[in-house]
Amino acid sequence: MQNNNSGADEEFKARVYTLIGAIPKGKVAAYGQLAKMAGAQNQSRAVGRLLKNLPEGSSLPWHRVINSQGKISFALNSDKYKQQRQLLEAEGVEFQNNKIRLKTYQWLAYE
């Protein structure tokens, strides 16, 4: 999102945070999916920036957001990658070759 309209940015941020908070345990959502649901298609990078800048100690389930290929976006085997994978596996999300099967685990808001 552009910074030239901070009101719109704050609305987008609030919508994205609300959506992330709504992702159920054991499900995942893609950055682009959340952007589209928040009314800003093609703004998946903006979703990523919001996640990167989450306040310390946030209770939002950030770990449930992955990329559209079903992969964790952190570098493979980095500390953040390991943390996110561990949190997802603790919720029952299974990995096959470092990928999550979206047909099984992707959150559909109308479920």
From TrEMBL:
GO terms for biological process: DNA repair. GO terms for molecular function: catalytic activity. Signal peptide: none annotated. Residues 11-93 form the Methylated-DNA-[protein]-cysteine S-methyltransferase DNA binding domain. It holds the Pfam family DNA_binding_1. The keyword DNA damage applies. The keyword DNA damage applies. Keywords: DNA damage. It comes from the Bacteria. This is MGMT family protein. The lineage of its organism: Bacteria, Pseudomonadati, Pseudomonadota, Gammaproteobacteria, Alteromonadales.
